[in-house]
Predict the 3D structure of the following.
Amino acid sequence: MTNKSYILASNDNDILHILEVINKDENDRTSLIDHPVLIGSRAAKWHIPLFRDPNDWDLIATISQSISFINIVIKSNAIFKYIKLIYYPGSGLKIVGKCIESFSFTGRNHGNPILFNIELVSDKVDFRKMNPNKKIDDLYDTDEDDDDDDDGNNNEDISIFESFEDTKPKTSSLMILELCHDIKDKIMFPLISSFLCIVAPLKILEALKSSHINYPSNFQKNITDLHTLRVSLGYNITQSFCSPQRDEPIEFMLKTRIMETEIIQKAEVDLFMTNNEEFFDHNNELSVQRRIPHNDIHELVKYGEHPIYESLKIDKSKALIEKSLFEKIDYQTKLNCVKEEAMTIALERYLIPMVSKNQETSYNLALARICTTLSKGLFCQFAIDNYPKLLNLDKDLLSIAYDIIDKYPLVEQKKQLSSMFDPETQIIFETIKPYTKEILSFDEIHFYDGRVNRTGIEITSPVDRYVSITAIVTTLYMTSEKRNNYWSASVVILPSDELEAVSNIDYESDDESGAFDDPLNIHPYYNLDGKKYIKLTSKNVFTFNSYKDRMIIRAKSADYVANKLKIPDVNGDLLFKYVLCYLNPSFESFNKIPPLGHHMDKLIAEENISNIAATQHPWYSAWIYALKNKQLKAFHRK
């Protein structure tokens, strides 16, 4: 579950104005710290040269420091490619953006863009909660007359956000600034030589990484980072790993950070369900294709006479294991208990349904689920703390899977599966979903006298944390001067690092009217007057244009991009299905429906498209047909 966030401003001038408004609320403020604090992988790389290469700059800064940062960038030889001020109710304010050397826009050598994420902090104003007497629009109030009444007794509370009180707990970011007050380690922000940042110490970086380790997004990257930090701190030097004994202020900061993180993104598991079967059905939005019960698979991977979990329950009907019993067993038995569960999940969800034939990959995916979405508390924490020692798979799971497939026919599903996808496809979708992150906002597309909608997702490879792909769907609609309807849609699926290259290309616009401007340069808008595509790119997997009595659909295979994810059995066909299933694009929001469905029905009647394809998203059916026939052209009556 993700809480709603609000983009307060999306250009440097508006952000500066809002920050100045907030700055007035920090009356009689004192300087918390001389410089912003650098956290995240960039700070870890400063301490540990062999740490992975960072992607961005994560900072914690005061309002005045953030104002200074923006002003310095504006005055320097740099420019904001984009910048946004985002408000997360219950969590706080962030500035996210990208800056780049300004001369790089004049040619094809674009320089190195700098991504940044600034978490705003104050000891006077609580950014987690707005004043109930104020609203977001008040941030844009330009009324400069804020003097007191003549008698000096104006008691109106003009603060946009609530003020901190002695009884109100501090934010984790404020605690971090206080913990870093005397730190001497510093680094210069690139492009702007006068902006110094304090480098957070490793103990704080380890705690911050621990605060969001339970979430599936980028888990493989995060768990590797966490244990790299712990090794550098000497936490994992004993034979049996455990949660580190942190300094009390850092431990308190961590607990606060965890609560703040849960406000933004929460993963809840109810371990008091009726039984194990109900527990695993609940945690599988796309139903498992089950040949034998979950507990029977445990019997096939056990290390002793009985599965270990059986001795750790008081109530045998519950999925919950007893903490006191788990703590009493020896260290190796604890490891084996987690491994038994991971092997069972790997068999049930990936190997038996033949979603994957790679037992190591399936086991790693199952282990990641134990650390994130399938459990919480002691069992989950033990798996996280001991993750490096759990990675060794010492049983032949493929042989067990084949034996189950041969001996046990498929039982009837308890739940009615969606008619859109077969069970195998749904399980593959489940494999991808934990690594999918929705893109919450895009720079505005300028389309004169038309309506535009854009959505997108980023999928990180579960087997290579440095690889991700981006899928973006764009739809637009307009009515010409002669009252003819025009529809256009595109699906772009490409490696995420290539999206940057596409968006930076300085096209010589073919659209002299200036009626269409796409900041990402990925939507092939069709110029009605010039009768040609504008800014057509090679990254379009699917394009649809319909105007007057004509409809044109173009398609391209997505196999190349799908292979980048390195997910077993995920090809371009399944990837395109997944994108359409996740984003579910349509023209319904425009209250006008193009004649695509009519043509699909006609092709089915002519047996050019199978009835099976007809149960899919209509764009998928059109994509399949266009792939086989180069493109789809159709004419319809007005």
Q: What stands out?
A: The chain has a mean pLDDT of 76.
